Structure to design on (694 residues):
């Protein structure tokens, strides 16, 4: 769920998601800690939810987030409802070859429920070693199921390898036009004067004014707009 | 309130904190501090700790207010401070209310101790599979709670904290030991400023982080220094293992010999300190290193090599019993693979009777297949590919080229769910070697396999 200041438009993300909705496949939203990965994924979820049941796999607890745990959460999220005791997802996965895991996930993604499912996975690779495999597994699932799979990824350690067949989008900084548009399009700010909204723009870009085309890191924009929102109440 | 002035007065580094302070009530700021310090903290837990720290705080109102702050991510069952703000808020907590910050760490550590006690599983020798699954899950939860406790202790008792971190690293959950170790290490490094007075332990974890995420060679010097120095404790044992693993694969025979010395010391020290997991993996690495030394050291004579192979075989068999007793499928599977490789080396050195060749080769491929299945369940792509390569080499030695090609195909299929560049290159080398030896009978099939491999390996070469 996005707060208004996190709704600064990301046209590139939404364009890529629109393509995914048509053809399926894997989209990687790539950026560091200030890139607003979570917010970009939330925008993707909103867009996907028009035509799909968007299943989001995320961890806000800071727990172990290895590929095994991510796959266990995907397993639980895609599992059809059952009665009676079930072995934990981790236990079931432990007994399964990766090919079989991909097969199961592809089948479950393809099943209509009544709407087709799409998958969104946050922070792939957060606690992973070198040479880990979740990246190609997710790309393979997206390709074989022909469904949208969106992942967020921090490339600080390593760029997402192109050989895994996913579309990679680097999350960019925001410019003045984008921030201003968000302010003017937010319903709850309709009562604010233009001058007040321009003050918010000035606050967001304070420190980068010397540049001809000032930009701001997404996370900084969210922090400043969020603070302005609270400070102007 | 003029936020622009607040920003200008604060300067670049403190800008977001200054804005947060200017637009946030004191109670909410205190709650934010607590969530910045906390790991996996539920709102109900936070409310309880909050009122013990500040008696007159309105916890419910603070939680509602904090949820609308840009300092938190929302979703799921709890609030989480955004990554970019966490360290700033923790520093703000300590600089604003130092004694309360320390007390917060103590209370959070106590909370985790209670969780650890709650999850400590009762012994159930005749449990059903469901009971076993629950017990393993409980055991894991107890371990995670202990790690979080060690994290909080870093602020109040850094010596105890670093000792606990090392002990927990040496005894990780069975199901995913390496992932668990990496998570633990990430938490140690988040507390590195508080653990500065524990340089040995901190150096070990920094080296481990470098080893797993970047270049192992960069970690080697640090690990060797820790291994050489006294005291002879768990930190030394863990460092000797990592150093042995890194040098044990060197192309330099002197480095490999040094690895054997370090691993010998590691095994002895781990036995002494009852670090069973470290002992088992060190003994396995020792066997792998012997095989590697035989291949890189041109000066070894045949009898000496055969003696080393028999020693490795004895150690691998002894290790299998220990791995089975320890109850780790990962360790057992890796040890089985090592045993197969030792037997294959003996096979290649023609150190077995002619009448035994076929039977021994069959034993080797069965071992490799068992190890491969278990390692595939761990999503260990590299191990799957290399066990297939080893099985292919075994079949090729028996001139059963069709089965060798099957094995290579199986290894290559693993690339559909992952690829490990170095392993893929070695698989390709084996495929090329097999093509030379196989003659015309399997040429078409092997050419097709090589062409498919080339589309991937061209990226790495």
């Amino acid at each position: 769920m996005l707060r208004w200041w996190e709704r600064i438009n990301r046209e590139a993300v939404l364009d890529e998601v629109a393509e995914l909705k048509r053809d399926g496949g894997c989209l990687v939203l790539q950026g560091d800690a200030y890139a607003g990965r979570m917010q970009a994924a939330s925008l993707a979820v909103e867009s996907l939810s028009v035509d799909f049941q968007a299943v989001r796999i995320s961890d806000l607890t800071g727990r172990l987030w290895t590929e095994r745990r991510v796959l266990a959460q995907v397993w639980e999220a895609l599992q059809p409802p059952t009665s009676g005791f079930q072995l934990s997802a981790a236990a079931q996965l432990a007994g399964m070859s990766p090919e079989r895991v991909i097969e199961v996930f592809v089948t479950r993604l393809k099943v209509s429920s009544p709407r087709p499912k799409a998958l969104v996975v946050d922070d792939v690779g957060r606690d992973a070693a070198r040479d880990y495999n979740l990246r190609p597994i997710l790309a393979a699932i997206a390709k074989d199921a022909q469904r949208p799979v969106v992942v967020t990824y921090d490339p600080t350690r390593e760029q997402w390898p192109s050989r895994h067949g996913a579309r990679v989008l680097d999350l960019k900084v925001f410019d003045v036009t984008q921030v201003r548009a968000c302010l003017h399009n937010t319903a709850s700010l309709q009562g604010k004067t233009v001058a007040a909204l321009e003050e918010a723009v000035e606050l967001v870009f304070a420190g980068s004014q010397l540049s001809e085309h000032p930009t701001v890191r997404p996370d900084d924009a969210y922090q400043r707009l969020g603070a302005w929102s609270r400070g102007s109440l | 309130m003029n936020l622009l002035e607040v920003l200008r007065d604060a300067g670049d580094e403190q800008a977001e904190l200054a804005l947060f302070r200017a637009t946030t009530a004191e109670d909410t700021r205190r709650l934010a501090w607590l969530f910045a310090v906390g790991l996996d903290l539920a709102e109900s837990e936070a409310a309880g700790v909050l009122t013990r720290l500040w008696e007159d705080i309105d916890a419910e109102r603070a939680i509602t207010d904090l949820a609308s702050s840009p300092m938190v991510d929302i979703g799921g069952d709890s609030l989480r401070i955004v990554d970019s703000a966490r360290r700033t808020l923790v520093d703000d907590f300590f600089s604003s209310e130092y004694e309360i910050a320390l007390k917060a760490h103590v209370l959070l550590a106590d909370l985790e101790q209670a969780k650890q006690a709650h999850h400590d599983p009762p012994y159930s020798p005749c449990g059903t599979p469901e009971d076993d699954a629950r017990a393993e899950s409980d055991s894991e939860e107890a371990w995670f709670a202990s790690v979080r406790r060690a994290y909080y202790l870093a602020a109040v008792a850094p010596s105890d904290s670093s000792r606990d971190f090392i002990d927990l690293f040496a005894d990780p959950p069975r199901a995913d030991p390496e992932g668990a170790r990496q998570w633990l290490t990430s938490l140690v490094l988040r507390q590195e400023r508080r653990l500065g007075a524990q340089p040995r332990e901190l150096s070990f974890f920094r080296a481990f982080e470098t080893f797993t995420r970047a270049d192992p060679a960069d970690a080697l010097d640090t690990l060797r220094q820790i291994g050489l120095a006294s005291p002879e404790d768990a930190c030394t044992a863990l460092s000797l293992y990592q150093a042995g693993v890194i040098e044990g694969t060197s192309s330099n025979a002197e480095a490999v010999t040094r690895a054997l010395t370090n691993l010998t010391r590691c095994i002895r020290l781990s036995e002494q300190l009852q670090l069973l997991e470290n002992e088992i993996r060190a003994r396995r690495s020792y066997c792998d290193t012997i095989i590697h030394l035989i291949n890189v050291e041109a000066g070894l004579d045949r009898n000496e090599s055969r003696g080393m192979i028999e020693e490795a075989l004895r150690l691998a068999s002894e290790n299998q019993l220990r791995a089975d007793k320890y109850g780790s499928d990962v360790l057992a599977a890796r040890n089985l693979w090592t045993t197969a490789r030792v037997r294959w080396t003996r096979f290649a050195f023609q150190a077995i009777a002619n009448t035994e060749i076929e039977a021994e080769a069959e034993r080797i491929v069965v071992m490799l297949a068992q190890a491969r299945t278990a390692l595939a369940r761990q999503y260990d792509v590299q191990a799957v590919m290399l066990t297939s390569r080893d099985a292919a080499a075994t079949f090729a030695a028996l001139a059963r080229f069709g089965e060798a090609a099957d094995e290579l195909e199986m290894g290559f299929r693993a690339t559909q769910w992952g690829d490990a560049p170095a392993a893929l290159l070695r698989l390709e080398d084996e495929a090329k070697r097999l093509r030379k030896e196989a003659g015309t009978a399997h040429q078409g099939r092997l050419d097709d396999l090589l062409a498919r491999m080339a589309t991937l390996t061209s990226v790495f070469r």
About this structure: The radius of gyration of chain A is 20 Å. The longest helix of chain A spans residues 218-231. The mean pLDDT of chain A is 86. Chain A touches chain B through 58 residues (CB under 8 Å).
